[in-house]
Amino acid sequence: MINFINPKTGNRLVVRNSGKELKLFDELTHDEVAHVKDNIPRFVYQKDNYAETFGWQWKKWRDAQSESRGSSVKQKDLIMSRTHFSEYPIENRTILECGMGGGDDTEVLLTLPFSEIHSFDLSTSVERAKESLKDSRLVISQSSIYEIPYPDNAFDFVFCHRVIMHTPDPERALRCMCKKTKPDGILFIHSYKKSPERMKEWRYKYRFISTRVPSVFIYFYVRFFGTIMHNLVDYFYKQGGSWQEFAYKYIPFYRVLPSGSYDVPQPELIELEKLITFDALHPKYDLPMTTEDLTRILREEGFVVEYLEDSVASLVYATARKRRLDK
């Protein structure tokens, strides 16, 4: 089993009772590093942090992308097609998931024959994940992507999906994850793509306001006006041309194409659009990365890109292998 460490010193941790709760201390410096609440090691203490809107979000949309709890979204198909994990030996390998949110991707990883799945998130969404995911291979913690509490070169696979653009410094986040991948190990990284077309989307016009209002205001908007906005955006997209362009640039509601992994009944499709619209409007950070920067960082960290998706204006993701030290 891969054990936690003090991310600041690299030292091992020891568990001690402290009053009514367990705490983790640095074995050598004896500093307190984490506390255990609801059976989750918490390496971050502040309740209000830049990712906490996701904790709020995933407790409102508990089952929207969970196949085991009734969602029609083909989440496993989506993950497997993006990562190409089926083309790698997975059995008895370890994986680190960076930014688990409410655990919908974790649920997919648990269907694969990994020997250990270690997942963390900065937000309290880990509590929802802990409630719904029961597997002896899974270790959940509340941790920062900048201070990942595991040794360097520890994991056979590292997985980060839909996360780094919502951190204050995506480049630093990616470099931190690279360090946790074993030599000859596999890293999957996904980001919004910084492209001229992407940056024209409506979200970047309204986030100055939407990120400054309480979460409940954005939730009220998508919950009570979602169906109306869906119909409006759908009408404009069907007109094509300048009408579609206007909707993409100015109407604050996300359109999901009912195809592929998202070929779902319309009521469920609209619910997904509400979720994604909230997700677009309220995170504190939304910092897309260019394809050139993403691949450059991977090369600088000693990775070879084996699969790269760069065909659409809005997304970029890659599966890369870390070079062995003797090569």
Largest sheet: 7 strands, mixed
The gross shape turns out to be globular
- What is the rounded distance between the termini? 28 Å
Low-confidence stretches: none
The CATH homologous superfamily of the largest domain corresponds to Vaccinia Virus protein VP39
Number of helices: 10
Number of beta strands: 11
Strand order of the largest sheet: 7-6-5-8-9-11-10
Count of structural domains: 2
Q: Could you state the order of secondary-structure elements as H and E?
A: EEEEHHEHEHEEHEHHHHHEE
CATH class of the largest domain: Alpha Beta
Please identify, by name, the CATH architecture of the largest domain: 3-Layer(aba) Sandwich
How much is the average pLDDT?
95
Structural topology:
Layout: E1 13-18, E2 21-26, E3 32-37, E4 40-42, H1 52-60, H2 75-83, E5 94-98, H3 104-109, E6 116-121, H4 125-132, E7 138-142, E8 155-160, H5 170-180, E9 181-192, H6 203-210, H7 215-239, H8 241-250, H9 266-281, H10 291-300, E10 303-309, E11 315-322
Parallel strand pairs: 5-6, 5-8, 6-7, 8-9
Antiparallel strand pairs: 1-2, 2-3, 3-4, 9-11, 10-11
Helix pairs in contact: 5-10, 7-8, 7-9
